[in-house]
Amino acid sequence: MSAIVNEFFNAARTGDITFLQENISKIEDLNVRDSRGYTPLIIATYNNQIEAAALLLEAGADVNAADYGGNTSLMGVSFKGYPEIATLLIGYGADLNLQHGNGGTALMFAAMFGRNDMIKLLLDFGADINIRENRGMTAADLAAQQGNAAGVEMLEAAGIEK
User: Fold this and answer.
1) pTM of the model as a whole
2) Phi/psi of residue 18, each to 5°?
3) In terms of DSSP H, where are the helices of 15-148?
4) Buried b (16+ CB within 10 A) or exposed e, 106-115
5) Which residue ranges contain the repeat ANK (predicted)?
6) Residue pLDDT, tens place only, 113-143
């Protein structure tokens, strides 16, 4: 990876908007990947850098790009609990129901990690509550497994199939 791309990744991580603005036109592919498959957008969102994420999305970064494990920015912010960034991503067309390598979705991450504000947000935007991951578990099953009773209640109230 070239020096400018490395610096660009660091700027996305730290939210250095000035550097990103000055160098975005020098980056051949905004969806360039690091050794783990992270794109600058994934790095920015995972590090709660909403301004950097907005700048990258505005410049054409792929909102549904996934790392090598199949995890998207929306999945990452769902387990970290960043509703403002999730709303931004959804506004740019993030697929609420993409599944990573083990079949998990953003809603499942929110349910497993007790991010009930994220569960509500994802449900409000229409996330599919009946998707099953590779072991056959739904978001409600995963919430129950983690002892997230409030999450289970929210998902059941949304009409999850039992």
Assistant:
1) 0.94
2) -60, -50
3) 17-23, 40-46, 50-58, 73-80, 83-91, 106-112, 116-124, 139-145
4) bbbbbbbbbb
5) 36-68, 69-101, 102-134
6) 999 999 999 999 999 999 999 999 999 999 9
